[in-house]
Structure of ZP domain-containing protein:
Amino acid sequence: MMSSAVVLNLLLLVSIASAGHHYGGSVTFSPKGTNADGSMRVEFRFKRTYDWCMPSWWYCASGDCGYESTSVEGEIDSSSNGRSGYTNSWCQSENVVTRNIHGNTPFDLQDSSCCWVPTVNGVGSWFFQAHVDLGIRADTNQPNRSPVTTTLQLLRVPQNCPRKYHLIAYDPDGDQVRCRYGAQQGAECATCDQPSGFHLDQRACTLDYSYAYTTGVYGFELIVEDFPKKHTTLAYTDGSSSYRCALSGGRHRRSISVTPYPWYYQSYTTVPWWQQTTPSQWWLWWQNQQSTTAAPATTPWWWWQQQYTTAAPPVTAQWWWWLQTTTTTTTTEPPQEYTTSMTSHQRSYEPFSKLPLQFSLLVDSAAPSCTEGHYIPHFVSPTPRNGDEIQATPRREVEIRVKAAAAYTTVTDVIISGPLNITKHALSTGEYAIRWTPTSNDLGDHFPVCFIAESMSGSSVYQSEMRCVIITVGRQTVDANVICTATNMVVEIEQLHSVGLHKDYLRLNDPACTLDSNGTHVLANFSLNACGTMIEEDEEFIIFKNEIFSTDDPNSIITRKHEVEIEFSCRYEKKNNISLEFTARRHITTITEKGFGTLTYSFGLFKTANYHTEIDVTAYPAEYELGEMIYMQIESQSTINNTELFVESCVATPYSDPNYQTSYTIIQNGCILDETVEFYTSHQPVVRFGLQAFQFIGMHEQVFLSCSVILCEANNPYTRCSQGCINSTVAPPAHHHHRREAPIQTGSHLVSQGPLRLKRSIEEHEVSSTVLNLNLVFIAGCVLAAVGMVCGVLIYRTKRSDVKYQALKSDEI
């Protein structure tokens, strides 16, 4: 009892101490793999800004939230130019928490207390609620990841200077990110207020300030959400699933703009809220009176599309609720956000995640000039642009140079918001270096960093525009020296500048091949046709390729990501033509079959779904971005008319052999097995279909497609073409009909296309060696003198595109 009382008193002190100190906060999460006991490891980053540095205490509101295994907290940035109820200082801190979770069903985390710093729009108590969904996505086959976002949580703008704030919200899964005002009072927001004089573009996640009649701090309670770009399904460990639909044009045409009333409607705002004699828009929790109706709240644009099958859950009392002198009840409750027993196709337009993004925006008195570079600081070179991506590697410091200038004020500080352990260093007047060193645990993740320059003239403070960049943590950059002989490849990698590079954790394509070390270099020496070496050729060269990459620590119970990945190759000129033609082309197959005469099948690739422009064979191999649609056409020509073509099966392999052991089935028995396949024709002599580009795991840069097709008499219900998809475990139904003498369908014929390749992320440098004849290497075994060198280049394998901001198409507005 004594210990419980002590804990309760400590929590009470924290609640009282936080009154009038809250500037804002945010949260993101990222799955980090699986523990030895099968539980999922998830990292949460909770940011919070008070007038002094304070950690966060989030608790589980619903679902299985698991338990905290580690927690690290530290300061991000601080300043004495604040606007709290007690001091003029503020401090942003971040708490990095790892939770171990058994299962992956959705859950909610919450945090709440009192109070915001004094605000013009009367925001009192603060509420954080994060909806977390870690289901396995059908489109990525990985757990869902949240958008990453941050912001400076005290922004300043002169009253007479319009400004646009880009609220960075990047999604590592490539989802569509939307920003909206909080709509659920007591969960997402306190008063759910939309401040006058501001315009929120939900699609672009931008906040435009036009003009506010009253200076002071405005509190913003926003929610960041992510939606799929294409329909997909989330699968959960309890056997349930959740179907999510992509957004269409008409479902998200919403932007929030609140225009100030004319001056004669705004006389009451000339008095600050704490001096008003009439009740303000907010109240403290200890002053709360019973209410029979909920405060006005603007619902998100997708709210009306949801179907609620259960009643809303009761409101959970906060731990400090017993301190109230009056019992408060609410008869109007927010709709239920999640039901554990979700069924497929239910609530399909819900976002994957719902994350709070709260900040304060101080409207200062008018500036003498709104021109950047006069009083308001203006960023100059080498400051990165808003939205830039910066590459980083584990255990190596990344530096961002920021420089600002102003003619009539002095730049005194750069305010930053970023990951834990980020620092800033003044280099000269107006120039700063922002530095951060990622850890191995950060590999593969993306971290937003936002910054603002601040200048002063007397007691007046001016802020520049806010810029944000994304730091992507990839693998190390390592240079490899490759020596190509007539029979071997020799690879040398210097260890001095390669952090964590050790021969015991490196391997080639074939794990049976080991590497050596002489103390200064990691060495690999192997035959051209050994250790998993791949052989490619074009019209002029034969290319031998292999790869060195880091592997797991056999003595550790955790899994480490590949931090090093080096592709290298040796290229030799051909002396004679090889009979096997490797170069990709549009395959044309001619067959003679009884009853149908001469049949010709052609397998072509097209640039778009309108099939107007076929890819020229001179442009082969056809290259695609990962996930880009591949548009294919199989066409049949016969000496008889009235036919239709049917694709019975399609398989993809990394080589031109359709029976190769590594294969991926796209269509089987007429049934589509790849969810990205789309057919554009039906019952015609031409079959047009497409699917999204993919890549085989491992050292496979190309994909070959082989399809089995059947030509049938059109509109005949007894042909294989008319049967369509047939389950392989069920025999097709018998048809009782008179035997026909004329054949009505052909046998199965194989047509193929390939190779198709993914576009390279970086250029691979190769140096030609002297002439080497492939026939001599593999048949005669004669040795030719050949020496060459190529550079082994680290391949950054990221799953994201460059962060870009661009104008919306007119049909999306």
